[in-house]
Each structure stands twice: as C-alpha cells, then as structure tokens.
Design a protein that fits this description.
It is built from ten helices and eleven strands. By secondary structure, the chain is an alpha/beta fold.
C-alpha cells in the first residue's frame, strides 16, 4: 500500500512516494516503456509526478504528456520545474511545459536548481521569473509554487528569507534528504525544521544519494527510503513527515 500525506494547508492528499521524471527521458529507454512506467505507477497508487522543462531537451515532459492521456491526468498531482530566471524566459518555459505535458495547468511549478547565492535575488527582481510565475498562477496555469536546490542549505535559507521580504511564502521546497545528509551541510538540520514551522511542504530528493549510498553498501534501497519517509519534526499539535506539501502565499 502506498502511504499518503496531507498537502499542508490545502487539505489535499498525495502519495508519499513520487515518480521522478528525469530518467523517463533517457535515450536508451524506449518511449513506450516510459509511458508504461508512468501509468503503472498511477495504477498502483502513486499520484505525485515530478518533471522539469530541461530534462533531456523536453523528452521527459513529452513522454509524460502522452502517458497522462486517457484519464490519467485527472488521477495525478503534476509537478514540473523551470530554470529561467527572467520574466520572458520563465513565461516561455511555462507555456512549453504545458504544451509538452498536454495540460492547461500544472499542480505545482518550481524554480529549478536554486544553487547560487544570487538566484533568489534574480527571480524576485523586477522583470524576474517570479513575475511570470505569479502571472501564470493568476491565469490558472499554475496552482502552487516552490523551488528546488541541492547545493547548500544556506542558499535555501536565503531564498526563503528573500521570499518573505517580498511578502511571499513558497508552497513547497525540494532538497536532498538522506541518511548521510547530517554529516555535511545538513538540509535536515538547517532547513527542514523551518519549513515545518512555516507549514511549507517538503519534497525530499536524492534519498539514495544518487546511487552513491547504495554503491557503498552502507544501506539498502528500502532502508534509504524508510529513513527519508520517517523523518519527524513536531509543529504545534501535529507531527509532520517529510513529503510533498503546500502552504499558501502571503499576500500584501
């Protein structure tokens, strides 16, 4: 049985395990096999689908769009990402992603790879990508907004603070969460408690260290997943597990 988690303040429920989109576009994987993987995942209870505008020149999104035909789109919580930092580029990437995914709306759009200290300043600047994202939200093309990164918890904290300075709270934040994280620049220790306190949804990635942990033989795939899925942090009156989740924007 696939466990489900509540999506923060929305009250929606999504699968605690998501299907990553990156590998679905790999050249050695036949398109028909990618489609089979996506539909099999949904048929077996996985509802959270990951993707990005830049995965394999759009092939991951194109394949997912084909897989979501025949009623599958209505059964999925669909997330994709953009890496444009200015308004025109972000707007173009959003529309390209929607076209590839064969949908008029994504459930979650995330700014991809916020990995430089000035990335947050760029997306929130006048003429920056956030203007295009908020415009897409108002147009009904985007339901929720987040960001991802895998380099430094300090960059995540700066991005959250930059958002707050613009009276904006992200709905989700994506970051590495695995059993080795505590030993170096820990997202678990530095970022996760703040997200829980602010009721911002957490998306864990690299639970197996991009296979490095498995290659070391230090832990099995099941142990890696169990660790990430059972992280618990207390917020007033409730326990929150790492998983997809959302919180609403702060508005002026």
């Amino acid at each position: 049985m696939i466990p489900y988690r509540t999506l923060g303040r929305t009250g929606e429920r999504v699968s605690a395990l998501g299907l990553g989109g990156y590998h679905l576009g790999k050249p050695y994987l036949e398109e028909s096999e990618s489609i089979r993987i996506i539909r099999t995942a949904i048929d077996n209870g996985i509802t959270f689908l990951d993707n990005s505008w830049d995965y394999y020149d759009g092939q991951s999104e194109l394949r997912m769009g084909k897989a979501l035909r025949d009623g599958y789109r209505q059964r999925a919580f669909l997330m994709t990402k953009i890496d444009g930092r200015d308004r025109p580029t972000a707007a173009r990437q959003i529309d390209e992603s929607l076209r590839r995914l064969q949908t008029d709306r994504v459930d979650l759009l995330q700014h991809h790879e916020i990995i430089r200290m000035d990335d947050a300043d760029r997306i929130f600047a006048e003429g920056g990508a956030m203007e295009a994202v908020l415009e897409a939200e108002r147009a009904g093309k985007v339901r929720y907004i987040g960001f991802t990164g895998h380099k430094s918890p300090e960059i995540h904290l700066k991005t959250l603070a930059t958002g707050a300075s613009h009276r904006f709270r992200f709905d989700t934040v994506q970051m590495p969460l695995n059993l080795m994280d505590a030993h170096y620049q820990s997202f678990e220790k530095k970022v996760l408690p703040l997200l829980v306190k602010q009721e911002i949804g957490v998306l864990g990635m690299k639970s197996m260290g991009d296979a490095v942990i498995l290659e070391s033989k230090a832990a099995t795939p099941t142990e890696c997943l169990h660790y990430a899925m059972n992280l618990r942090f207390r917020s007033p009156g409730r326990a929150v597990l790492e998983s997809a989740g959302v919180a609403r924007h702060l508005r002026p």
